[in-house]
Structure formats: C-alpha cells, structure tokens
Predict the 3D structure of the following.
Amino acid sequence: MAGDKPKLKLAVYWAAACGGCCVSVLDVHEKLFDVVSAADLVFWPIALDTKYEDVENMPDKYIDLTLFNGAVRNSENEHMARLLRKKSKTLVAYGSCAHMGGIPGLANFSTREEILRRVFEETESVVNTDKIRPVPEYTAKEGVLEIPEFYNDVRSLSLVVDVDYYIPGCPPQTERLLEVFTAIVTGAELPPKGSVVGADNKTQCEECTRKKSENKKIKKFYRPWEIKDDGETCFLEQGVICMGPATRAGCGHRCIKGNAPCRGCYGPPSGAIDPGAKMMSAIAGIIDEKEPEEISRVIEDIADPGGYFYRFSLPVSLIRRKVQ
C-alpha cells in the first residue's frame, strides 16, 4: 500500500473513554501489516513507551494523522487535545466519545460537585468521615504530586479544538477505519473538512431489514427484557425503544442483526440538529393515544428518556447539560 512513498506518521490517543476504540484499531487483524507498511506509529500510549514530552518536542504538524478517541473530561485530556492538534496535520475524532461526548457525556446530567460527593462521600462502600477529596496538587515529603483537574462539563473533541474529520461508532467499525486510512495513504480525494466519514447519510431504519408497517402505532413501551422479540419485526413496532430513526447508518446495523435495538452510537444523520429531539419526534408519531393523560401514561413507560435519547450525544446536543 505504501509503495515508494515515505511512511506516514500515525498517532492514537485515548482520552475519556473505555478503551474500545483502541481495541478496534487492533481489530484490523492481518490488515495491520498493510497499516505498518504505510505508517510508523509515533505515539500510542497503550502500545508504545512514548512520553508526552516526546510529543511536545515534535515539530508542529509532524504527525500526519492522529486518531483521538475519548471525550475531554479533565485538564490532561484538554492538554493532549490541544497538543495533538498542534502537532497533527489531520486530527480525527475517532469514536462516539470524541465525536459527540459519548457515554462519559451522560455525566453532564450531574454536576462536578454531585459526582465528587457521591463517589467520595456517599457511595455505600466508602468510609470517608473526614470527607477528603482529591486535589489537583498536593505537596508530600517526596515532592509535589499532581493529578488532572476534574472538569464540571464533559466536552466532545470539537468543543475544544478544530477537528478535521469524524469517524463515529462505539467503537467505529474496523472496515470504516481501513477505508479512511487507505484514502489518506493513497492520496484519494477526501470529503470536505469537518465531514463525518466512514458512515452514511441515511438512517439506520433505511438500512434495517426488519419488517415494518406503513402506519406503526403502539400503546405501550417495553424494556427489551420485558418482551419476547420475534427476531423479525421492527423493534419500535414491538414497543421497544430503538434509536434507528435518529441514527445514521454505516455500521451495518450490527446491533439489530444481533437482535438488540440500535443505541445511537453513530450519531444523527446529516441535517438533524439534535438527535434526542429527532427521536422524540419519531416517538410522538407512533403513540396510538389521543387524550393527554393517556399519552403521558405511555411516555412514562420509557425508562430514563435522557439516557435513551442522549446516550452518546448529550455534550453536543441543544441542551448540553442539566441546568445548574
């Protein structure tokens, strides 16, 4: 794949995320040989003993491509986001957390104070009568100890630095990563800066092969474990919340093929301002009740609508966080 071209310099960074995106990079399997033949990994903390100082000493724009996965939750994440932006020619928000805030972004339904109080004072397994909290800097006899500052808000990568491209997914499908990497290596024409790549503009519903009726109407919502899925009918028509109407395609609807409703990790299709609002609109259109009291009863069946509708996207939504 590389030919006589000089090798690209590739970096991968893990911020506030679970690590699944880093694993997805390894999931290229034998295609890894094509990757290493075309690129040298110059920074990947989970695989290489490269220090932050080494990155700081790199010339600006030294790195050809950085895959940044994870949200920006603390001061270390922000420092590395700004540093890698400075050192990279192309910065990609890789995965749902970098793209939209992801699962860590659900913390925006709480405040920093509420989270610290719960974790260090109120959790059932904690005994902390002095209510000691971690501090960013502490002087001990061995010297000054430092830990990152814990921010009040979780932010997506684009809310901190300029992002060139977005590859969605929790984690992104390996095939999509290879497509984007190959395009960069071969010099193929890429979409305009700021585009979501490795995904489609149509919705999951348009790609899904489950049976759908033209006028779906339901009177009750269920949790997935409360019904016996027939394996064929649209989840929404069975009363199970599926984010398909508000989620872009491109993953091959693998969750649905595995008999699980779409979670929304690929984000909203182009033109959708807010994924939660789009999903609420879809829900409103299928409730088979006329009276306000009955409509309210049906809606009450939806456990944790915020967690359902903004599971991956709260930091970039219209509401961003709960009002303090």
